[in-house]
Amino acid sequence: xxxxxxxxxxxxxxxxxxxxxxxxxxxxxxxxxxxxxxxxxxxxxxxxxxxxxxxxxxxxxxxxxxxxxxxxxxxxxxxxxxxxxxxxxxxxxxxxxxxxxxxxxxxxxxxxxxxxxxxxxxxxxxxxxxxxxxxxxxxxxxxxxxxxxxxxxxxxxxxxxxxxxxxxxxxxxxxxxxxxxxxxxxxxxxxxxxxxxxxxxxxxxxxxxxxxxxxxxxxxxxxxxxxxxxxxxxxxxxxxxxxxxxxxxxxxxxxxxxxxxxxxxxxxxxxxxxxxxxxxxxxxxxxxxxxxxxxxxxxxxxxxxxxxxxxxxxxxxxxxxxxxxxxxxxxxxxxxxxxxxxxxxxxxxxxxxxxxxxxxxxxxxxxxxxxxxxxxxxxxxxxxxxxxxxxxxxxxxxxxxxxxxxxxxxxxxxxxxxxxxxxxxxxxxxxxxxxxxxxxxxxxxxxxxxxxxxxxxxxxxxxxxxxxxxxxxxxxxxxxxxxxxxxxxxxxxxxxxxxxxxxxxxxxxxxxxxxxxxxxxxxxxx
Length: 526
Ligand SMILES: Cc1cc2nc3c(=O)[nH]c(=O)nc-3n(C[C@H](O)[C@H](O)[C@H](O)COP(=O)(O)OP(=O)(O)OC[C@H]3O[C@@H](n4cnc5c(N)ncnc54)[C@H](O)[C@@H]3O)c2cc1C
What we know:
- The protein is an alpha+beta fold.
- It contains 15 helices and 18 strands.
């Protein structure tokens, strides 16, 4: 994946997409596969907005049944099934436990009905996928870390999980392979109009500071929270902030769906890359769009709730390994609590022809993007159906996934990669893992883990730096490999990693120091 600003020059595109989060990535991939001349730009890195700050779940959203959002749940469950089939390396099943306590807001009967409906809407055919009821003792055997006092019973059900930033990156790579021009660190500073219709945009390359007028027949804005800067769009939406904390491993394989003691909201405790993700908060937001801070009251809320739900755990601030915040775009509504507002997505087209993607979910972004491209195709007068339905993901191995998985796990272990690291390596890179194996064959010490507590190996770091359009150190350490949110990074380790990256990317000492400073400012604790 190479970055070439000049590829925007001297041509007119059918479609220009502003914003490389999940919505922009799916739109670019689908449109390029349908044969359009596509360009997509992001002012930051791929997925540097909300699409790397989600709960990493590919799910129907059990809790939306409470607000009777059946249509949304059904659509998301269908997408979950599709993604599990077309991207088995990128999206994998995750079993959830839901405990029921004597004083639970939602009792056994209500939960049972909800889970039956969830199975029905998801057309769960296999018994292993359907929900199960467990008596207290059986349930605690499965989730030994759970607080047992007043526990009466529990249920399990199956949803799915991903690495959100890598999902976006893989789609961008797919779009590139299908002929799209894809550029990170390129900002659209203004739209150009001809006869009151958008016909292009001024694009600034934030690496070279060069600016260029890029012309396109259709333009889509998938800028997530930044779309609220457009005065025409602002009245339609509001923002809600969600915070996650990363803590040491506490669960084995399953996740927990829990109800917060303080306000009755649903929150998750989820295993991710061998550690624990806790989230999320859900509060109205009207602050700075470019700088999202995790506030002390948000930390307290999540730590208190987790400590209350878990047995033998008393996490304190110092136990936190990482934290991140994201902003949802929600449609404007009279409701005061963001948690009760629908997560459904909408496509609006302004009078000047600019298409705006509003709200949505990572889970259902593929289908929503297909609607965006349908509208674009209609305006272009071209009849061509969606190409992403049923199409294998760009890095999916061509053969049977289970056979491929077994063969490559064996190969990885033979090369000296520990089995947990190997498992994640296959998920992270799909069929491109063969290139990482070759790196290790040439340089065997690259099998070592980067840090003992996370499953990433040095060969992964070198490969990402070489191949995955890394511009800044933060791209590499936050999104290609999420070390900055999974480890309590210190400055010595950061320098060590910056030097490895600098070696691959040809950075001199001054550049290495600049990159370290950029990362330190945002991610290292004083
Ligand atoms: C806390 C939280 C948890 C969530 N959990 C889940 C979950 O588990 N599962 C799920 O399905 N969904 C989840 N969601 C929802 C999901 O994350 C979002 O719907 C999705 O990421 C939005 O993607 P997007 O592409 O619209 O926006 P973004 O990901 O924010 O992308 C917008 C991009 O536009 C770029 N941009 C902005 N302005 C410009 C410009 N002028 N020029 C060029 N580029 C520009 C930005 O840099 C950014 O990369 C969650 C959301 C939140 C907040």
